[in-house]
From TrEMBL:
Any Pfam family: Glyco_trans_1_4
Molecular function GO labels: glycosyltransferase activity
Keywords, in A-Z order: Transferase
Taxon lineage: Bacteria, Pseudomonadati, Bacteroidota, Chitinophagia, Chitinophagales
Protein name: Glycosyl transferase family 1 domain-containing protein
Protein source organism: Flavisolibacter tropicus
GO biological process annotation, one example: lipopolysaccharide biosynthetic process
Length: 330
């Protein structure tokens, strides 16, 4: 840890844990690298799982002009809650909704009460309007901004021709809905449809409670997810309660077709795009009908990319954060 003399930092970013495979980590890491390398800012990225992390939290917290608390899991710790009480210039950047918020509220009632106080009295970045409406069931949030996740815009790579490949990207967890993905794959096989179903992403807990179809290729974690998207035809996004859906933007930017469940932050945008559909119930026959519909449509790649660039460029991400930081504290 550096000595106190002449040490000031522009921004501290606090994370519970960090993995580039997760949608809650990639956008804030992209921002951290951009601010550090392109904007010349003195940045600190602090993981709460590291050695002496809480000593570092206080040290960097009081030497930083601004602080971003990245995600609900950080509030497992009273030290983070106390820092938010004592400091100004704090933004709480949330990625979670029902699958994570409700268990937290049940298991940590007192901490959750303190967390809701923070939402009323500190600045909050939501990743979608859908997520903001969800949090209204818990508390009011007077100082907020919708800060859509940013992405690293991918390079061009020609996809290989072959079967119609339908993929989902995400951890194999209950709320990512690997079971429903499996049932749709089974129904497609029963109908002799020429589809190949693949799931990209490792185990995410509750594995014994989920059905894993032998008609799905379970690829596990891949280092370069964006490259894997080159070879698919349709992103079949089965997750429910997903506040944003980062992989949807990545697929759209590559000109891919998307069939998505309605409960995510991007569904209102996806539903308006040609070559995309949104479904409202977990019905295998309905989803296969929607897949058939999108296969018959041509994608307007420019329309897809214009939308993603509007929502997810680093310039827009920074601009929305700056507007949020500029809001007065309580």
């Amino acid at each position: 840890m550096p000595p106190l003399k002449n040490k000031k930092f522009d921004e501290l970013i606090v994370l519970y844990d960090f993995t580039l495979a997760g949608g809650a980590s990639r956008p804030i890491y992209n921002y951290y690298k951009h601010q550090q390398e392109s904007a010349g800012k003195r940045m600190v990225l602090l993981r709460l799982f590291t050695r002496r992390s809480f000593l570092k939290l206080w040290y960097y917290g009081f030497l930083s002009e601004r602080i971003i608390i990245n995600g609900l899991p950080c509030f497992n710790y009273w030290q983070v809650l106390l820092l938010c009480v004592l400091k100004r210039g704090v933004v709480i950047y949330l990625h979670e909704a029902a699958p994570h918020v409700e268990p937290f509220a049940q298991r940590h009632a007192l901490k959750f009460k303190a967390f809701c106080w923070m939402l009323r009295n500190r600045k909050v970045a939501f990743v979608s309007e859908w997520q903001r409406h969800y949090f209204l069931k818990w508390t009011t949030v007077p100082r907020y901004k919708i800060v859509y996740n940013n992405i690293n815009f991918p390079y061009e790579q020609k996809a290989e021709k072959g079967k119609i490949t339908i993929a989902m990207v995400g951890y194999q967890s209950r709320y990512k809905n690997a079971g429903f993905f499996s049932k749709v794959a089974d129904e497609a096989v029963n109908r002799y449809l020429p589809y190949e179903f693949i799931w990209i992403g490792g185990e995410g807990g509750e594995m014994s409670q989920m059905y894993h179809s032998p008609n799905v290729r379970w690829l596990g974690d891949l280092e370069h997810v964006m490259d894997a998207l080159n070879s698919i035809d349709i992103l079949f996004f089965t997750s429910y309660g997903d506040t944003f859906g980062l992989v949807i933007t990545e697929a759209l930017y590559k000109g891919k077709k998307v069939v998505s469940f309605i409960e995510n932050g991007l569904a209102p945008f996806v539903s308006k795009l040609k070559g995309c559909r949104v479904y409202e119930q977990f019905d295998e026959s309905l989803v296969l009908e929607l897949i058939d519909q999108v296969l018959k449509e041509e994608v307007n790649v420019k329309e897809h990319r214009d939308l993603v660039e509007h929502l997810c460029s680093m310039d827009n991400f920074k601009s929305r954060l700056e507007e949020l930081f500029a809001m007065p504290d309580e």
